[in-house]
Amino acid sequence: MQAIQLLKPKTFRTIEIPEPSPPGPGEVLVRSHRCGICGTDISGYLGKMPFFEYPRIPGHELGVEVLAVGPDVTTVAVGDRCSVEPYMHCGNCYACRQGAINCCEQLQVIGVMIDGGLRPQFVIRAEKLHVSTQLSYEQLALVETLAIGCHAADRAAIRAGDTCLVIGAGPIGLAALEFVRLRGGRPVIVDLDPQRLAFCRTQLGVEFAIEPEEELAEQLRSYGDGHLPDVVIDATGSAVSMSTSFSLLAPAGRLVFVGLTTGEVSFRQPIFHRPEGTLLCSRNALPEDFRQIIGWIEEGRIDTSPWITHKIPFNKVAEQFPQIIRPEARAIKAMIEVS
What we know:
- This protein is α/β, with parallel strands linked by helices.
- The protein folds into 2 domains: 2-133 and 307-337, Medium-chain alcohol dehydrogenases, catalytic domain (Quinone Oxidoreductase, Chain A, domain 1, Alpha-Beta Complex), CATH 3.90.180; 151-281, 3-Layer(aba) Sandwich (Rossmann fold).
- The chain has 10 helices and 17 strands.
- The strands form 4 sheets. Strands 3, 4, 5, 8, 9, 16 and 17 form a 7-stranded mixed beta sheet that branches. Strands 12-11-10-13-14-15 form a 6-stranded parallel beta sheet, covered by helices on one side. The protein has a two-stranded antiparallel ribbon with strand order 1-2.
- Helix 8 (269-273) links the parallel strand 14 (254-257) and strand 15.
């Protein structure tokens, strides 16, 4: 069968791979139906993702169908539609024993360190599948992106009424924005792209979607009743933005880095010391995030309809991927139609 492989940065190719073996104990054979494109995939394509290993079959935001189950699997059944939790943890290291499986010392993310879902079928651990009887494959492929934002909002410990600044209106920033609102925060989003800000205002109903001015701190005070944000979530992956964000916190504020950069992040310590700021990082997501998000979409608390703006046929990935990631494409979330 055919698969899409990223041979090296900026080089996709179609390869022939063998049919997968039957699933063993604790395993499930799945068919890929939909695969979302996210910042990790773009960074991997551009050669800027520090954890990406080449050559690699990408694809970790997945909506899949169960084709066969291993002899001891009871949590899913043939025909189930599932979202994939793509973080393959070891279960034995210190992080896993503490319940922080998203920070496993031996973590292998499918589509990044091991082969992912841009292939018709593959075998995966049953515990990594989250079933829904209601959601479409496209909605199921969105769950992982939303889970990243959910986990970041959890790390921020958002309280009702908190002014929450999200920096970056890409998919992860927009996902964080969803959970700022669900937790009762007062959202402000900053981005350099007027089209993305317009999307936030018209499609997501965010009143304060703004382009940054030279004096960003003073600009934010005008949206925060005279004070800086209680929470700042930086989803840019920009070392410059991340460095600036230290100076944007209200007293006792929380700064969460959900974006990832290979650049150097720096700040003057008194700027962060004065408000007694707290710095947190947010990595991946946890199983309960997936379960919660599926339930909230099923209940109508999360509207996925504005998200998917572009679709790519499986056999057009090499041709269309470079076009879809250009700023002028105005893609919010692109979805690859694997089957």
